[in-house]
Amino acid sequence: MRADAKLMKELNKRQLRRVLRQCGEATKPELADRTGLSVVTINSLLEDFLKTGEAVQSGMAPSGGGRPSALYQYRPDYRYAVLLYGHQSEGRNLMHLAVVNLTGECVWRKEEYFDEIRVESFESVLDDVIGRFPETGLLAFGLPGEVVNDVVTIHDYEALIGPDFMAHYKERYHLPVIFENDINAMTYGACRDDEMERATVAGIYLPRIYPPGAGLVIQGKIYYGTSHCAGELAGLPVPVSWDSLDYGSAEEVLENLKLLTAVYGFTTAPETLIYYGDFFTEELQEQLRTYSERLLEGKFHMNLVFEENLEHDYEEGMKRLALEALWEEME
């Protein structure tokens, strides 16, 4: 096959993949109509997809009296993304593993505590899950740090800082590997409906034993800042240093959170500011809402949301980021 013909076939395959994803299932004439390709071309491409298992015949379309047409759909389990994301739980490192298919359905999950986090710490659990799912097409990490050009530049787990972490897992599994900061993933995961995707949403995670971090999503895109340093709040001058803050002291906590609310209210003006933490009493929530309204003086309304359970937004964000990257790899 000539190079230009091979390229054209790959472009046509990309188009057919997109249409199959969008429509769920369709007949060959419907696929031809939606892609703009001929039925002959659709026949040839589907033959390849059926051989590789990328698509399957899913049934027969209702007939209006003539011969019924076969229906085809993209196979959700053709590829998987493996998610490994972690956070603090009762002062310990809790890691979640999840396997999702191409529609975002979680088909396997596991939780495990880790006493130490080093470059090689995740080998055993990942060997197991990737062995169970050989169709894995991408590995996604969600951890409290930042990666720039495959180098871990900032991390609460200092042993991961440097170029070794990303290189180690890419070489070990021969897979694309992505990395996302924990609060970025949570904030991204919170933007699930159309209205939130068009909005500016800020998230702040307070894990107690580490300084807080912040994420910012603007119209559906994570804002990283220079060298991915946006949201690194450890250096922000606060009334009580994060190292010595007593989370049992409502007065100390309130003073620090007033500052964070003011900073994010006036610098990013988000429609929604989400606080993730396990210490937000009803009284503290009401005090912060009252402070926010008084601070902004009616210039705009900033909806304050308090989430004790961060795992739902975290997994949703990691899942969306992983699938976006996986589909891009496949195309």
From TrEMBL:
Question: Which Gene3D superfamilies does the UniProt record give?
Answer: 3.30.420.40, Winged helix-like DNA-binding domain superfamily/Winged helix DNA-binding domain
Q: Which domain of life is it from?
A: Bacteria
Under the heading CDD domains, the entry gives:
ASKHA_ATPase_ROK
Keyword Phosphoprotein listed? The answer is: no
Gene Ontology BP annotations = D-xylose metabolic process
Look up keyword Nucleotide-binding and say if it applies: no
InterPro entries attached to this UniProt entry: ATPase_NBD, ROK, WH-like_DNA-bd_sf, WH_DNA-bd_sf
Which keywords belong to this entry?
Carbohydrate metabolism, Xylose metabolism
Q: What does this protein do?
A: Transcriptional repressor of xylose-utilizing enzymes.
Q: Which family does it belong to?
A: Belongs to the ROK (NagC/XylR) family.
**Name of the featured protein:** Uncharacterized protein
